[in-house]
Amino acid sequence: MQVHQPYARMWVMFGGYARDTCMVEFNTVGDGVPEPLDRFALFGYEDRSHAPNWLRLVKQRDEGAGVAGRICRELGPDADLRMSVSCMHGNEGWRVVSDPALNQCEIDVAPLRRR
Amino acid sequence: MSATLRDFLMREGSTRPAGLVRILLALLLWARFAVEFAPYHNVAQRFPVLALLFWISTPLMLIGFRAQLSTLLAGLTLCGAVFYAGVAHGHEHYVHHHVYMLAASTLWLGVAPCGGSYSVDRWLSVRRARRDGVEPPPERGPQWGVTVVLIQLSACYFWSAYDKSTPAFLSGARLTQILVTKYGTSDIPFAGFEWLCQIGAWATVLGEFGLAAGVLFKRLAWLVVPAGLLMHALFFLALPVSTFSLTCMALYLLVVDPDDVHAFLDAIQGHAPR
C-alpha cells in the first residue's frame, strides 16, 4: 500500500536516505590468488577517516570504476585489480553491478567524477 | 452513548504524567525550532505568522499557563509548519518524520489534561483553594486525550515497521547502507557487520510491531517502557534521528498507568500517596 497524497503521506523513516551508496571491494590478483586491497593504505592514509570522499564513498558503478583507475595507476603496469560494486536495487536489496572477474587495469575507465 | 465509549471518555487519572510530557515537549520544540523561528532567521522572516504563534504558545506551554489551550495552539502552529511551510511551500525540513511526530504529539497532548499538574494553572487553583479555605482540587483529569497521544505513537510504530518490511531492509542491506554512509565509507567496517545489521533489522521491525500494540496496554508497561526506551536510545546514538527518539521517549511517561506515576513521584519526594 502506498500513499502519494501530499497532505497524507506514507510514514517513512530513512526511506530515501543513502540509497545511492554502493558497497565496494577491491582485490589484487597475484599468481591467480585474489587478495583484499587496502586502498586507503595504498594512497598513504593510515586512517580512512582522513581519506578524501572520492576514495571513501562510492555512489554508483562509474565512481567505482574511477577509483579503480586511480588505483591501477598507483599499482603500476601489469597490475591485476578486481572490483566488486554492489548497489541497492529498489526494495530488493544489494545487486552486484560490476563484473568481479574483470581486470580493471586492462579496461578504459570512465573519467573520475569529482564530488 | 455506549457504555464502552462513555467509560473511555470519562475515565480519569492523574494529570502528572501529561504535565511532565508537556514540559518535555515544550523544551524539545525549542531545541528543534527556536533558532529557525528567531527573528533574525530567514525561516521566521518567510513564515512570520508561524514564528509569532510559536513564540506566543510555547513559553505558555512550558510554564503551563492556560496549559491545554497553549499546548493546542503550539500543536496547531507546528502542524502549520508541517503542512503550510513544509508541504505547501516546499520547506523540505518540515516534512521530515521527526518534525511531524513532534507536531502531532504536541497537538494531541493539547486535548489531554496537561495543565492539571506542574503548571501555573495548578498553582493558581491551589492558591484559590487556600484563599477559599478548601482543599486544593485533586490532580486528576479525563484520560481520553492521553489515549489519543498513545494511538499516534502506536500508529507511528506500526507504519514505520510496515515501511521497513521489505527484502532490502530485512536482509540488513538498508541498515548497512545507512550506517556505512553515516560513517562515510563504502566498506564493511568489520567482519560480521552485515550479520549484525540483519539482526538489527529484524529486531527493529519486530520491536516496532510489538511496540505498536504494546504502548496501548498499560499492563504491559513493565516490558514496553524499558524495551522502547532502549530501542530509542540505540537509534539516538547510532543515527541522526534529531528530536524523534527524544519525543517518543518523553511520550513513554504516558504509557505507564498515570496513578502509578503519581504514586511514584509522591514516593520519591517522601510524601504519603495522595
Helical amount among residues of chain B, as a percent range? 55-70%
Strand content of chain A: 25-35%
Structural class of chain B: mainly alpha
Looking at the structure, what is the overall shape of chain B?
A: globular
- Average pLDDT for all residues of chain A: 84
Q: Which oligomeric state applies?
A: heterodimer
Tell how many strands the DSSP assignment of chain A holds. 6
Q: Could you give the distance between the termini of chain A?
A: 36 Å
Structure description:
The complex is a heterodimer of chains A (115) and B (274). With 115 residues, chain A is an alpha+beta fold. In chain A, 20% of the residues lie in helices and 25% in strands. Chain A contains three helices and six strands. Chain A has helices at residues 39-42, 53-56, 61-75, and strands at 4-5, 8-9, 23-30, 33-36, 81-89, 93-96. The N and C termini of chain A lie far apart (36 Å). Chain B has 274 residues and is mainly alpha-helical. Chain B has one domain. Helix content of chain B is 69%, strand content 2%. Chain B is built from 14 helices and two strands. Chain B has helices at residues 3-10, 16-33, 42-46, 48-63, 67-88, 97-109, 120-132, 144-164, 167-170, 173-182, 193-214, 221-238, 244-251, 258-268; strands at 12-14, 140-142. Chain B has a two-stranded antiparallel ribbon. In chain B, helix 2 packs antiparallel against helix 13, helix 4 (48-63) runs antiparallel to helix 5 and helix 5 (67-88) runs antiparallel to helix 6 (97-109).
